[in-house]
UniProtKB/TrEMBL annotation:
Protein name (record): Arrestin-like N-terminal domain-containing protein
Annotated organism of origin: Rhizodiscina lignyota
InterPro entries documented for this protein: Arrestin-like_C, Arrestin-like_N, Arrestin_domain-protein, Ig_E-set
GO cellular component: cytoplasm
Pfam families in UniProt: Arrestin_N
Organism superkingdom: Eukaryota
GO BP, sorted A to Z: protein transport
Subunit-level organization: Interacts with hulA.
Domain spans labelled Arrestin-like N-terminal: 2-128
Family: Belongs to the arrestin family.
Length: 414
């Protein structure tokens, strides 16, 4: 098997961004291979349909190549042994002025056109009786304008390169996942997660969680409920990218970009809201780069800007937010019970640009929640889904029959 894999496929790349990958060769026997090379090249394709012109225009943008493996058999170097061999590579996207062909920059206002950029990574193996090619392809639409969707904060401007075409199918993740356990007598523990709408880059997120019991027996030291313990917590961070024109197409990362697991815990569950970081041995921070939009001021006057790019298109919009999923287990009445709560979208702010804004974060969130509550009351929505994501665990008191969870507990490994 001869294959090329791109390891960090992102939904958005910027000028000068790097990406990594690996070339994999599985050999059943030793092979007399002389060289393995890899090439990274890009080309643009535009199609114009007017009364006087039609057809495709293909233009080469750039090309880079390097040798991953070479063997000088005349120097007595042994052939490639049997087994699995891997070679890592890193390539860098060109700067934005180099990667856009002139056709994109100076195209007149025709009624209709199609344009995109194709980047390919190709690996070639060459040897005695051996020739093969493997490739990985990334297809992008050019972006004329982007802006941050959420929040009234200022944005640090940085011109984007291009963004990949979203796949035809994307997995939609439900807003709230609930585990519900029934008992002969309902003694409910409501697990509610409170997360601010804004977070600061590389600083701990203000995570607050509350365990609220609907039975005053929780204060009795002789009851089973008072012996409830939080035994494990897992926090998973997902990125959400909105790509589109009038209505962005939401793409959520199918795998978490960061996971933190805390096991072997035995923390008494107190009534009321507590800071989750007070219960964890280490704080949880978002180290991913915040999304940065593009300044469109003066685009029509600057021939090297992206303003004239595809003017017949609607203005594209790109947003980058994040979502947290927190799951855990509670040990009570001799059984483990699981909970799973999910946050709404979190906007990540720059540490330097938004220091003053961050200091007012709690007040802004409270005002934002107040406005959300007012809108919810008008629309008849459940305010709890806005103020915090809530899940109810129904736990029996001592002496009642203990029933198993209808849904398996979330795995906390990884």
């Amino acid at each position: 098997m001869f294959n090329v894999e791109i390891e960090n496929q992102a939904w958005l790349y910027f000028p000068g961004d790097r990406f990594t990958g690996v070339v994999i060769l599985e050999a059943a026997v030793s092979l007399d291979i002389s060289t393995i090379t890899i090439k990274f090249h890009g080309k643009s394709k535009t199609k114009v349909a007017t009364e006087t012109e039609s057809g495709w225009n293909v233009q080469k943008i750039f090309e880079q190549s390097r040798t991953l493996y070479s063997r000088d058999k005349y120097a007595g170097e042994p052939p490639l042994s049997a087994g699995t061999h891997k070679w890592s590579f890193t390539f860098q996207f060109p700067q934005h002025l180099a990667c856009y062909p002139p056709r994109f920059l100076f195209i007149p206002s025709e009624r209709r056109r199609i344009a995109w950029v194709v980047y390919e990574v190709k690996a070639y193996v060459d040897g005695t009786g051996i020739k093969d090619t493997a490739k990985a392809k990334l297809v992008f639409w050019p972006s004329r304008r982007t802006r941050l969707e959420n929040g009234p904060m200022p944005v640090e401007f940085r011109k984007p390169l291009i963004f990949p075409v979203p796949p035809a199918k994307s997995r939609q993740i439900s807003k709230v996942a609930l585990l519900l356990k029934r008992a002969s007598k309902k003694v409910e523990c409501s697990v509610t997660l409170f997360i601010p709408r804004f977070a600061i880059l590389s600083e701990p997120i203000s995570l607050q969680i509350s365990f609220d019991w609907n039975n005053n027996l929780v204060d009795d030291e002789n009851t089973t409920l008072s012996q409830a313990r939080l035994t494990a917590i897992r926090i998973r961070l997902y990125s959400i990218t909105g790509i589109g024109y009038k209505t962005p197409h939401t793409l959520s990362s199918q795998s978490p970009i960061k996971t933190a697991s805390y096991t072997d815990m035995s923390i008494p569950i107190s009534k009321g809201r507590v800071n989750l970081h007070d219960l964890l041995p280490a704080p949880f921070v978002i180290n991913a780069e915040p999304y940065k939009g593009m300044d469109m001021s003066g685009c029509q006057d600057n021939p090297f800007s992206l303003g004239p790019l595809c003017p017949s298109f609607e203005t594209p919009m790109i947003s980058r937010t994040y979502r947290l999923e927190i799951s855990g287990t509670i040990f009570c009445a001799g059984k483990y019970r699981g909970f799973h709560v999910q946050s709404g979208e979190i906007v990540l702010l720059s540490h330097v640009l938004h220091r003053d804004f961050a200091m007012k974060d709690d007040a802004l969130v409270e005002m934002d929640h107040a406005a959300e509550r007012e809108r919810a009351e008008v629309m008849g929505q459940d305010v709890l889904e806005i103020d915090g994501i809530q899940q109810t665990l129904e736990i029996p008191t001592a002496g009642n029959e203990v029933l198993e969870l209808e849904t398996p507990l979330p795995e906390l490994n990884g």
